[in-house]
Each structure stands twice: as structure tokens, then as C-alpha cells.
Specification:
The structure is a single chain. Helix content is 3%, strand content 29%. The chain has 474 residues and is mainly β. The strands form 20 sheets. The protein has a 3-stranded antiparallel beta sheet with strand order 24-25-26, with no helix packed on it. Strand 30 and strand 31 form a beta hairpin. The longest helix has 8 residues. 20% of the residues are buried. One of its GO terms (molecular function) is calcium ion binding. It is a single-pass type I membrane protein.
């Protein structure tokens, strides 16, 4: 510290709002004495200094003695024209209508779902809204339907029909849109089959090419409706013409494709038809009519001239458009090419003791190895089952191998009878219709049923198998 004899010195104001002074230690002054008034205002705290004091101000105040209230509204914190009210260490904003928030920074939404009608779009404003209306509506809230027909929007005599939010023009025939555009009935082209379309007001017309008719030329003219083809020829309809597909066996005179025959001497490239089955050519402009019958049995007709029409000596019968074959007995097929297999009907023994041997128009039954029996030739004309040939294994005999030689001895049961052997004797059990010790006699003559074919004469004999052989002439 300086000595007491040192002179006093004045000090400049300090930025911290207190003063310093050099005083003699003995003359130190106390400004913040509790007995006097507090130099700091508004709740500021006083602190002594050297020949001075300073005030520690509360928030919101300033000045050497905290005597000044800080104006928080000086920075204009309130937005959108709000009024700022200064308070101690704070402020409040009084918002105008349509705004909200601490600083009135938010625009209050004014649009709701029901603000605008008829599909209008609501545009929010400041404390208000506006409605952008769709076409056909007007008014602040788009609540009014505009009558578009008042402006007479339909042309060429069209009738205007006002509807909710729109309108419709009913045009006279030939117009479209707002009846200002003429309809092009030829687009897209309704005419078919290369026809030419001509448009006119309210309609169109089609100019058909040859061979077609109808409103749109969609119907082909059927030249076959007049049945121009003869002798069973098939008419094939073509565009603006036809042709005949002749059945096999018919042909037509056409100079250029036929170098000989009744059509020789006709003018070049002319067509002629022949009267049915004659040799006189008649001039014709109707085309191919299939009038000439060709002898299909002739070796000169057809590509297969080197082979017979019918095989195995079959007889050829000419037809219109073809031929048929009359086959000899034992042959079948369209051209008698197939030999009838008489063995397919299994005419031999059903018991599997015989083999059937195929012959031309006939067959023959042979006993298989291990079986015996009498061979009487073929049985192709035999019809009674009782007269069939049976082949018996060793120790058996009879028409159906019914006799057991080992027990019945010399007793032979005929006509399907069965030998019954006992300890004392043997006897035959005959089939219905037969009687006798060996079933050799018929109860009634089998000739009553006329079993013989092709005017054959039936004669009863004791040995049926001999009768069967005699019937077929073997």
C-alpha cells in the first residue's frame, strides 16, 4: 500500500461498475454498510471495494446500481406482427388472429375436410382459406353447379345435357365430340376382303371386289350353290370362281392335258365336257364338270397298270369313281388280297388234341403227337358237333374219347355216351336223343333239323363219323 503521506489520486470508472481509489489504509470507507441504504437496486448484491463498491445485478437488470430493467423486446423476438410485452428477465408475445406459438411463428390451419364442397381444393391462408373449384363448380366454397349448357357448347345442332359438374352433347348422326367433328365411318375400315370404303355424313359404303358381297363385303359368293359339278363331283368354292374335284373314275376333256381321245381337234386352250358316258364332246364354258366315267377296271387307267386290279382271280367290277372286286371263295379284302384263315374259328377239337392246318379255301384237322384217331379229311362243311373228329390219348376210344378200353373192354359207347364200369359189367350212359346198348340209335332222326347245306341230302347211318366224311365228299 502507499504511505499515508502520499497524495490522493483520482481513478477512472471501471467497466465492472465500481471505482477504485487509493486511500490511506486508515481512511478506507465502507459503502455497503448495513446501517445505511443499499446502493444496489432491484435486488442487486453490493460488494465493497477500495473507496468504492460494485453491484451484482439479478437477471434482467443492468446499470451501476442495477437500476435499469433490460428490455427483452428490443431484439423483436415476436413474429408475424405480434405485440411484445417486456417483463422482468422475460417477455410475452401477443399473437394476431391466425398465428400461434411462443413467438407467434405458427400459422394456425384454417382448412378442414369440410371447408370446400364438390371436390374443391382448400388453400390455407392467414386466418382464412380459399377454395380452388374443379371444372363445373363455382362459389366461395365451390357449392354452386355451373350450367355449362348456358354457353351453348354443342355445335351442328347438337343437344346439350347439363349434369352435375359437367355436360354432354348428343350429336346428330355423323358427328362426334362436341358435334364439331365429323365421324369418319371408314376408320377403322369396316369393309373386308380388300373392299374400298367411301365415307359420307352419317354412314359409309363398301365397294366389293369380285367374288364378295354384303354390306361390309364379308360374305363370299358361293359359286357352288348352282351345283355345277356332275357325277358326284365335289364343288370347291374359290374366290370369284369354283372348281370340281372329280371322284375317282371321272375326267374332263381339256385340250393341252389330253393329247388324244374324243376331245382332239378342239381350239387351243378351250375347255369341253363330254356328255355322260358318250364320245361326243360338247362345248362348255362352265368349267370342269366331271361328266366322263372312266373304266377303272381297264389296265390303261391308273398308275398301277402293271398289276391286276383284283388278286387271286377276283373279278373286277367298274364303278363311278372306282371299282370293286368280287372274290372267289376263301379270299377277302378290297382287292381279294387276303386268304381267309378258316382256322381262326377253331374248328378242330376244343380239347387241344388237334392242330388246324390252313388250306386254300379250306382247313384240315390233324392229331397232335401222343393222340390217335381216324383222319377223314377236312370238315369244312360239317355242322353237327356230334360228327366232329376227336383225337384220343392211349387207352381211350369213342367219338369223344368216352370209352376207357382199360375198364370197358370191347364196349364202345357212341354218340357221346359214357361208359360206366362196375365189377361185374360195363354199360353205356347215352346222351339225350340216343339209345341202344352202345347209344348207336337216335331217339329221333337228326335229319328233321335239315343239317345239310347247299342242297345236300341227309341220310342216317350207324357210324356218325363216316356220315360226316360222306357229307363233305371226302
Amino acid at each position: 500500500w502507499p504511505s499515508s503521506s502520499a497524495p490522493h489520486r483520482a481513478c477512472s470508472p471501471d467497466p465492472s461498475s465500481f471505482y477504485f481509489g487509493f486511500v490511506n489504509q486508515a481512511h478506507l470507507n465502507a459503502f455497503c454498510l448495513s446501517s445505511g441504504p443499499d446502493p444496489c437496486h432491484n435486488g442487486g448484491s453490493c460488494s465493497d471495494g477500495v473507496d468504492s463498491f460494485f453491484c451484482d445485478c439479478l437477471a434482467g437488470f443492468q446499470g451501476q446500481k442495477c437500476e435499469e430493467d433490460i428490455d427483452e423486446c428490443s431484439s423483436n423476438p415476436c413474429k408475424n406482427g405480434a405485440n411484445c410485452t417486456d417483463c422482468v428477465n422475460s417477455y410475452t408475445c401477443t399473437c394476431p388472429s391466425g398465428f400461434s406459438g411462443i413467438h407467434c411463428e405458427h400459422n394456425t390451419p384454417d382448412c378442414t375436410e369440410s371447408s370446400c364442397f364438390n371436390g374443391g381444393t382448400c388453400v390455407d391462408g392467414i386466418n382464412t382459406f380459399t377454395c380452388v373449384c374443379p371444372p363445373g363448380f363455382t362459389g366461395i366454397y365451390c357449392e354452386h353447379d355451373i350450367n355449362e349448357c348456358d354457353s351453348k357448347p354443342c355445335f351442328n345442332g347438337g343437344t346439350c345435357q347439363d349434369s352435375y359438374g359437367t355436360y354432354k352433347c348428343t350429336c346428330p348422326q355423323g358427328y362426334t365430340g362436341y358435334c364439331e367433328e365429323q365421324v369418319d365411318e371408314c376408320s377403322p375400315n369396316p369393309c373386308q376382303n380388300r373392299a374400298t370404303c367411301t365415307d359420307y355424313l352419317g354412314g359409309y359404303s363398301c365397294e366389293c371386289v369380285a367374288g364378295y358381297h354384303g354390306v361390309n363385303c364379308s360374305e363370299e359368293i358361293n359359286e357352288c350353290l348352282s351345283h355345277p359339278c356332275q357325277n358326284g363331283g365335289t364343288c370347291i368354292d374359290l374366290i370369284n370362281t369354283y372348281k370340281c374335284s372329280c371322284p375317282r373314275g371321272t375326267q374332263v376333256c381339256h385340250l393341252g392335258s389330253v393329247s388324244h381321245g374324243p376331245c382332239s381337234g378342239l381350239p387351243q386352250d378351250s375347255q369341253a365336257t363330254m356328255a355322260p358316258f358318250s364320245k361326243a364332246c360338247l362345248s362348255s364354258s362352265a368349267g370342269v364338270h366331271c361328266e366322263i366315267n372312266v373304266d377303272d377296271c381297264s389296265p390303261s387307267s391308273g398308275p398301277d397298270t402293271l398289276t391286276p386290279k383284283c388278286f387271286n382271280n377276283g373279278k373286277c367290277l367298274d364303278r363311278v369313281g372306282g371299282y370293286s372286286c368280287l372274290c372267289l371263295p376263301g379270299f377277302v379284302g378290297e382287292r381279294c388280297e387276303g386268304d381267309v384263315n378258316e382256322c381262326l374259328s377253331n374248328p378242330c377239337d376244343m380239347r387241344g388234341t388237334q392242330n388246324c392246318v390252313q388250306r386254300i379255301n379250306d382247313y384240315e384237322c390233324e392229331c397232335r403227337p401222343g393222340y390217335t384217331g381216324e383222319s377223314h379229311g377236312t370238315l369244312s362243311h360239317l355242322r353237327l358237333i356230334d360228327y366232329l373228329l376227336w383225337c384220343c390219348s392211349q387207352g381211350l376210344d369213342g367219338a369223344t374219347c368216352e370209352n376207357d378200353l382199360r375198364s370197358c373192354g370191347a364196349l364202345r359207347c357212341l354218340n357221346g355216351g359214357t361208359c360206366v364200369s362196375t365189377q361185374k359189367s360195363s354199360k353205356c350212359l347215352c346222351r339225350p336223343g340216343f339209345t341202344g346198348p352202345e347209344c348207336e340209335f337216335p331217339s329221333s332222326s337228326p335229319c328233321h333239323s335239315s343239317p345239310c347245306y347247299n342242297q345236300g341230302t341227309c341220310q342216317f347211318a350207324k357210324e356218325p363219323r363216316s356220315i360226316g366224311t360222306a357229307l363233305v365228299g371226302r
